[in-house]
Amino acid sequence: MPKVLICGRGGSGKSTLVTMLAKGLAEQGRDKVLVIDSDESNLGLGKMLDIQPPARTVMDSLGGKEAVGKSLMAALRSEGTEEVKMFSGDFTFGDIAADSVSWSGTVGLAQIGKVEHAHEGCACPMGALAREFLNKVRDKKKEWVIVDTEAGVEHFGRGVLEGVDTVLMVVDPSYEAVLLAEKAAKLAKEAEKPFSVILNKVNADTEAQLKEMLKEKGIEVTAVLPFSAQISRANLVGEPLQITESLRQILNELIGGIANANVH
Fold it and tell me: What confidence score (pLDDT) does residue 62 get?
């Protein structure tokens, strides 16, 4: 079961890539694809996927932020780690509480947790829960897990990538995205996780410039997603995303590369 973490700066297109990968995998007839929304502030992923978000987050199904926070604090006091220990052991897609995952065909959506109230405190329990969830979810070889993360690199510090097989970084045409890719590449190397960069929303000029800038930092580009007016409009008005013909081959090659790497 490949587990793929998608990261990048805010607005780079992380959720768009997550959606495209999930729909591309569904087209290929994978048994199931579970999308994990680990971004506590992301509100539009369900609309992109055309899936109604589940009634409860995973955190809510385990007693809420307070309960998870208490478990986290207990772990910190007793062992000096951040393992939440909210799950008794490994589990499968079918073991997830029915009201904490929504399925549309073979694609499912689960949300780790969301910020619901002002002054509710930090999101650390959500990060710790995401890490444990990814470490313990298990299923069949043809099933995939795709993780949508919050902007930046905080999830690296929280260890969310501990339970994944590979990290994909979305880089859009911005200097900040290049700097963030350099940082993320170093953090992924520390964690001994394969790391790849996907360019997004580029044209011929920005593609060449970004590749040169990243090459200077020792980072090669794995795939390029050109700017799409169709996807841009769908994201603007809140319509479900559809795979364009120009993207289908790119996605199939990207999926094939991840699958082959996971086999070995």
Answer: 81
- Tokens 């008794």 — which residue? 88
> Strand order in 144-148's β-sheet?
102-104, 107-111, 33-37, 144-148, 3-8, 166-171, 195-202, 221-226
Instruction: Judge whether residue 107 has pLDDT over 70.
Output: yes
* Model pLDDT for residues 208-233, shown as the tens digit of each residue: 999 999 999 999 999 999 999 999 99
**For the whole model, what pTM was predicted?**
0.90
Cβ pair 199, 224 in contact under 8 A: yes
Architecture of domain 3-263: 3-Layer(aba) Sandwich (3.40)
Query: What single string gives the DSSP state of each residue in the chain?
Result: --EEEEEESTTSSHHHHHHHHHHHHHHTT-S-EEEEE--TT--SHHHHHT-PPPSS-HHHHTT-HHHHHHHHHHHHHHHSS-----SSS-B-GGGS-GGG-EEETTEEEEE-----STT---SHHHHHHHHHHHHHB---TT-EEEEE--SBSHHHHHTGGGG-SEEEEEE-SSHHHHHHHHHHHHHHHHTT--EEEEEEEE-HHHHHHHHHHHHHTT--EEEEEE--HHHHHHHHHTPPP---HHHHHHHHHHHHHHHHHHH-
Give the CA distances from residue 155 to residues 72, 124, 150, 169, in Å, rounded to whole numbers and listed in that order: 16, 10, 7, 13
Angstrom distances, CA of residue 255 to CA of 145, 151, 224, 248, 251:
12, 23, 13, 10, 6
| Dist CA 144 CA 208 (whole Å) | 32
